[in-house]
Specification:
Oligomer: single chain
Number of helices: 18
Radius of gyration: 25 Å
Largest sheet: 7 strands, antiparallel
Strand order of the largest sheet: 10-11-12-16-15-14-13
Number of strands: 19
Shape: globular
Number of domains: 3
Length: 507
Amino acid sequence: MPMLLTERQNRRVGSVTRLVLAGTVAAAVVAAAVSGCTINPATGRAALTGTVTTADENRIGREQHPQIVQAFGGTYDDPKLSQYVNKVGQSLARYTERPDITYTFTILDTPIVNAMATPGGYIYVTRGLLALADNEAELAGVLGHELGHVTARHHAQQQSRQTLASIGMLGAAVAGSIVGVPPGLMQGTQLTALGFLQSFSREQEFESDQLGARYMSKAGYDPGAMATFLRKLQAQSDLESTVLGQATRAERFDFLATHPNTADRIDRAIQTANLAPVAKPIVGRDSYLDIIDGMLYGSPPSEGFIRGRVFAHPVLRIRFEVPPEYQLFDTRKAIYAQGPGNAVIVFDADPQPAKTQNLTMVQYVSAATKIAAAQVTTERVNGLEAAMASVTAKGRDGQVELRLAAVRVDATHVYRFRFITPASLLTQLAGANQHTFQSFRRLTPAEAAALKPLRVRVVTVKSGDTVASLAKRMAFDNHAAERFRVLNGLPSNARAVLTKRVKLVVE
């Protein structure tokens, strides 16, 4: 939840996989001539990479690595899992055409389902992606694809094209305001061009698929696992659209948003790679399930938890609940609740707490809504100072009420609810909105300590177990069966479970 913690604010990452050639390296490259073409050893084709050398790429990746890790909330602290991912990655990297690079594989501690690469062989996978993958071969497919971006020097090609187009240097603050790059990635750096923050081209994605398939085949994996996993990613994306609607479409930073690929195109890439069939290909399902058993799922304690209709934050020690007809979900900007008739509740924290220290909540709400203080309602919410005011505005589907409610927890923490309610539903939802606001309270130390994150648990399927019975053990109040099927790669209409082991998400 970005407005609550600085770490979460830094998650507004845009397409951070394309953030390359920063600082003095970028300035030097832009100043240099970039008209040279080189023969890429991975593709065997001429590629426009300008004056970007291997030393440049290594330096860029090394400099950007700590900033990327910080922007995604750090690395996931599980030495055994990290060693496993590195082992799989290195088994592929040994077959790449660029032995001049030392490849580094990192797990980012975020529930976002994604993977990325930066120059110099820095490959990243997220904790959310590892939870969705079902076996070692699928993980290898993701890592192989990202290795393909590095060995094909796609980052250098993008930089050279943008420089030749004379897009020039963008100041870090300007670029950040346009594309939403987190402040943590801006300090002391500049971006060479907006193009670096965009996805790779379809041609480059296809090329990475071909190269990834090559590395998988040589390492003993069936390249078809790349397409299998992409179909799971699509199923996950479809499920999120069903559960959350379209409210988070503009915030997407998942694999499908940054890798505009299709499973059919991957199949075509594998065919055109002209690879010999792999005898007894490695699948590694049991070993993979063993290593992810117990892995954190969803948000870590530092970001708070959604449990049904309740949002609770063990670090900030706050909680509230929304009415039964509302669906809670988390985004990189705030906590949202979607209600009937496009009614919405938005919860966040004031982003500039220092400026609120000397304001009463009436003054705060008055300044925020441009409503005279005399028209602001003051009240107490579970002993905390609070205030509320509303205005009427014209929405997309007619008149809506915009109600701002603010509550102060202490001198440096002010939290806000914004209730956006269609005028036609005011009578129906007014009480629900007030209940939500009045439900906000501080957690006791014991209550905060009792909150535990969700985790992936691998269980053995017993005789009589079905999708329905296993889904009931999942820690979700809605769409449990659909979530179970997607998590385990089952067809959307599956009722029976044919595998010996499955993944559950439990507290």
